C-alpha cells in the first residue's frame, strides 16, 4: 500500500466517523480531500469509497440516514438526499457493502 492509498484509507475512515456523528459537512470535507489525493496520485478510489460517497455532492452516504438503497432489475440503486442516484451491478458487492435483502435497516455501520 502506498502512502497515498493509506491517506485515502484514513480519510475514508474519518469521513465515515464524521458521518456517523451526524457531521455531514465534515464528512464531505474528508470525501473531497480523499478524491483530491486520488486524483493527484492517479489512483482509483476503492470500491467501498465510491459506493458510499455521492458523485454529485460528495456526501458520505449512510443508508437509512441520508441515502436510500434499493434493488432494481439486478442493480443496486443508491439515492442520495441531494437527488443523485448511483447504480451498481448487483453482483458487484465484494465489499459486502450492501446486503441483499433490500432493507435499509439491515445495512450496518462500522
Ligand atoms: Zn448527493
From TrEMBL:
Subcellular localization: Cytoplasm
Keyword list, A-Z: Cytoplasm, Endonuclease, Hydrolase, Metal-binding, Nuclease, tRNA processing, Zinc
Reaction(s) this enzyme catalyzes, per UniProt: Endonucleolytic cleavage of RNA, removing 5'-extranucleotides from tRNA precursor
Residues that, per the record, bind Zn(2+): 54, 57, 80, 82
GO biological process: tRNA 5'-leader removal
rRNA-binding in keyword set: no
Details of cofactor binding: Binds 1 zinc ion per subunit.
Cofactor: Zn(2+)
One of the record's GO cellular component terms: ribonuclease P complex
Primary residence: cytoplasm
GO molecular function annotations of the record: ribonuclease P activity; zinc ion binding
InterPro entries per record: RNP4, Rpr2/Snm1/Rpp21
Enzyme Commission number, as recorded: 3.1.26.5
Sequence similarity: Belongs to the eukaryotic/archaeal RNase P protein component 4 family.
Assembly and oligomerization: Consists of a catalytic RNA component and at least 4-5 protein subunits.
PANTHER family: RIBONUCLEASE P PROTEIN SUBUNIT P21, RIBONUCLEASE P SUBUNIT P21
Record's function text: Part of ribonuclease P, a protein complex that generates mature tRNA molecules by cleaving their 5'-ends.
Name listed for the protein in its UniProt record: Ribonuclease P protein component 4
Organism: Natrialba chahannaoensis JCM 10990
Gene that encodes the chain: rnp4
Amino acid at each position: 500500500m502506498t502512502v497515498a492509498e493509506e491517506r485515502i484509507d484514513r480519510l475514508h475512515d474519518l469521513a465515515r466517523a464524521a458521518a456517523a456523528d451526524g457531521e455531514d459537512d465534515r464528512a464531505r470535507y474528508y470525501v473531497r480531500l480523499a478524491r483530491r489525493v486520488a486524483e493527484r496520485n492517479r489512483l482509483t478510489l476503492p470500491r467501498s469509497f465510491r459506493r458510499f460517497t455521492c458523485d454529485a455532492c460528495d456526501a458520505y452516504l449512510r443508508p437509512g440516514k441520508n441515502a436510500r438503497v434499493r434493488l432494481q432489475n439486478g442493480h443496486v440503486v443508491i439515492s442520495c438526499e441531494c437527488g443523485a442516484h448511483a447504480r451498481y451491478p448487483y453482483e458487484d458487492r465484494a465489499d459486502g457493502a450492501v446486503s441483499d435483502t433490500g432493507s435499509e435497516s439491515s445495512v450496518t455501520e462500522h
